[in-house]
Structure formats: structure tokens, C-alpha cells
């Protein structure tokens, strides 16, 4: 029988301090050349081991080989000039210096496929691999070529599909697309955002997920959250169409957020990665707090579809805090699983 409430993480985990500056987003690498390549691979092994030690069921690379969840993928594409930078408002929220699309975009070569093979060699557990979603990619760029967000999103979707098919062939069990932009641009999500995501998963036989969150625990995001009022109903705008989509799993922010849990009813039937760990605070959840979030979610998500998870990536946290949070996630899931089975 399949394990009930299998635990996983939304994405990134902290990197070792010998590889990159800790507790920093877009942290520069500390190594170069072949030392950097080896260092990333060593960090991937360490990250896997930390997840296994914490008892996580669906493991990942902890995004150890990438500097940032969007830009590292884009760096491997033709048509994007990283020297030509523009400051744009990303997620309609904060200014960031981003590269410019100067010509037709295409993938030079596989981006993460070798890393995924390395992870596959290290474990027999199910593995999940994260890619940026098309809409979040275009939202992290200045487009001076297509001059249409939608057109560029379709191009990225084709490229993502090539990468996803190779990740699947490398033995990845779940391919996840990170789409924090889905929480901001509702009209576009419904017009073409979900459609481009479905293009990105076309022909895949492995499971697919979309991760929609309120962002890392960085100041621009926590300030934004303060403006959202007491009830966060952003998910409500995109759930009906997502429920109808071909995406298998939806990964969400739940614990400590102001998302009314009953919104999960709108995606009934989908598998749901329920965020039961807050990544925007250094305080460690107790197993009982995790269990409470999961019990609440169980009112709207069938037990066999519930995957306890973190709200978002934990790259900006310290390693000790991130590991403690993973253990709390596991312990909380254990409590609720025992209740379900007793
Ligand atoms: Zn996230």
C-alpha cells in the first residue's frame, strides 16, 4: 500500500557555507571551475542526506546546484543577454535587476538533467525536481524581443517541456513548476498561464506539480503580505481552472498564512502539497502545530491526496533551522498518519 501523507519540501534548502554565503538569496558561489562543479554535487549529496535523516519521503536536490530558482534556468538559454540588465518590478511587488530577452529563446543543452541523474543514483526514494513555470520566468526578465508576455510564455513552455521530458527519462518521479506569479496575475493565469503550464507538461508520464506560494521569507514579500488583509483569497481566482487542468499536484502555502483553508475545496480531487511549515519565521513548528494544519486541511483534501510539505523553499534559512523544521514536518505527519490508521 502507498504510504499515507508522504512528506516533501517545496524546493530549495540551505547550501553549505563552503559553497555559497548562507542565509542569502542569489548568493554568489564561493568556488570556481571544476571545484564549483564538484562542490555543487557534494552539496546535493549532503542535502539529500539531511532530508533522509529528517525522514522526508519525497526527496529533492535541495536546489544545491542553482543560484536562484528562475535565473539559473534562464542562464542556459539562447536569446537572453545577462549583460544587458534592466530594473523591473517583479511579481508586481519589488524592483529587481533582470536580464533582457534580445532574440529568439531556445535551450542550448539540458540544464539540470545531469544533476537529476546524480540524485537518482543516490536514492531509491521518490524524487521531485523543480523548474520555474513559464509565467514566473517571463516575470523575472525584461523582454525586448517578443514584446508580448503571452508569446514569450509559450516559447518558454516549449523549452520547459524539452527539459521536463529529459528529467523524466533521468528517473524523476515528480516534476514541479514554481509559479508564484500565479498568485499575482489572475487574469493572465486564466487566459494563458495555466494553458502554457499544460504545454510544459505535454506528453509527460511522470507526475506533475505546480507550486504557488506567497514567496520566500524576504522583506519585500513579508511587507507585501502585510497589505493583503486578514483573509488571503488569491488562490480562489485560479483554483477553478487549475482543478480542471492536467496538473496532478498543487503545492500551497497554508501554515501561518491567512489563506482560508476552505479554498482547498475548490481543487478537490487534486493531490495537494499542504504547506505546514512557515519558511518566513525562524521559530520551529512543534509537531502538534504541523498536525493541526494537516488535520484542518483533511477537511478539504482526501487523505490519500494529502502531501505534507513546506510553504516554500528554505534557502534563506540557516541549515540548523531548516533541518529542525523538516523534522517537525515529519513528526507532525506521523501524528496524523497514526490517527488515520488507528
Ligand atoms: Zn514558493
TrEMBL record:
GO terms for biological process: methylation. Its cofactor is Zn(2+). It is an enzyme of class 2 (transferase). The keyword Aminoacyl-tRNA synthetase does not apply. Gene3D superfamilies: 3.20.20.210. SUPFAM superfamilies: UROD/MetE-like. Its EC number is 2.1.1.13. Keywords: Metal-binding, Methyltransferase, Transferase, Zinc. InterPro entries: Met_Synth_C/arc (IPR002629), Met_Synthase_cat (IPR016456), UROD/MetE-like_sf (IPR038071). It comes from the Bacteria. This is Methionine synthase. Residues 5-330 form the Cobalamin-independent methionine synthase MetE C-terminal/archaeal domain. It comes from Vibrio qingdaonensis. GO terms for molecular function: 5-methyltetrahydropteroyltriglutamate-homocysteine S-methyltransferase activity; methionine synthase activity; zinc ion binding. Pfam families: Meth_synt_2 (PF01717).
Amino acid at each position: 500500500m502507498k504510504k499515507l501523507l508522504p512528506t516533501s519540501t517545496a524546493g530549495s534548502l540551505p547550501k553549505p557555507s563552503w559553497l555559497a554565503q548562507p542565509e542569502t538569496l542569489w548568493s554568489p558561489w564561493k568556488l570556481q571551475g571544476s571545484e564549483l562543479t564538484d562542490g555543487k554535487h557534494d552539496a546535493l549529496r549532503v542535502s539529500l542526506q539531511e532530508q533522509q535523516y529528517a525522514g522526508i519521503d519525497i526527496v529533492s536536490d535541495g536546489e544545491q546546484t542553482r543560484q536562484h530558482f528562475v535565473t539559473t534556468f534562464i542562464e542556459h538559454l539562447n536569446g537572453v543577454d545577462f549583460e544587458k540588465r534592466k530594473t523591473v518590478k517583479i511579481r508586481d511587488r519589488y524592483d529587481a535587476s533582470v536580464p533582457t530577452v534580445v532574440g529568439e529563446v531556445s535551450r542550448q543543452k539540458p540544464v539540470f538533467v545531469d544533476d537529476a541523474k546524480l540524485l537518482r543514483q543516490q536514492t531509491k526514494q521518490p524524487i521531485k525536481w523543480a523548474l520555474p513555470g513559464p509565467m514566473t520566468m517571463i516575470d523575472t526578465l525584461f523582454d525586448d524581443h517578443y514584446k508580448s508576455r503571452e508569446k514569450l510564455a509559450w516559447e518558454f513552455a516549449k523549452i520547459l517541456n524539452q527539459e521536463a521530458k529529459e528529467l523524466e527519462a533521468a528517473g524523476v518521479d515528480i516534476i514541479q513548476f514554481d509559479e508564484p506569479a500565479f498568485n499575482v496575475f489572475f487574469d493572465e493565469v486564466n487566459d494563458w498561464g495555466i494553458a502554457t503550464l499544460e504545454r510544459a507538461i505535454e506528453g509527460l508520464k511522470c507526475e506533475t506539480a505546480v507550486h504557488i506560494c506567497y514567496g520566500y521569507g524576504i522583506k519585500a514579500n513579508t511587507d507585501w503580505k502585510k497589505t493583503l488583509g486578514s483573509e488571503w483569497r488569491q488562490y480562489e481566482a485560479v483554483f477553478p481552472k487549475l482543478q480542471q487542468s492536467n496538473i496532478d499536484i498543487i503545492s500551497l502555502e497554508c501554515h501561518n498564512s491567512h489563506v482560508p483553508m476552505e479554498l482547498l475545496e475548490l481543487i478537490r480531487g487534486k493531490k495537494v502539497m499542504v504547506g505546514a511549515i512557515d519558511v518566513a519565521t525562524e521559530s520551529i513548528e512543534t509537531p502538534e502545530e504541523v498536525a493541526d494544519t494537516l488535520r484542518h486541511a483533511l477537511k478539504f483534501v482526501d487523505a490519500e491526496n494529502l502531501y505534507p510539505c513546506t510553504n516554500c523553499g528554505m534557502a534563506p534559512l540557516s541549515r540548523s533551522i531548516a533541518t529542525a523544521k523538516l523534522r517537525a514536518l515529519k513528526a507532525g505527519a506521523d501524528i496524523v498518519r497514526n490517527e488515520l490508521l488507528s
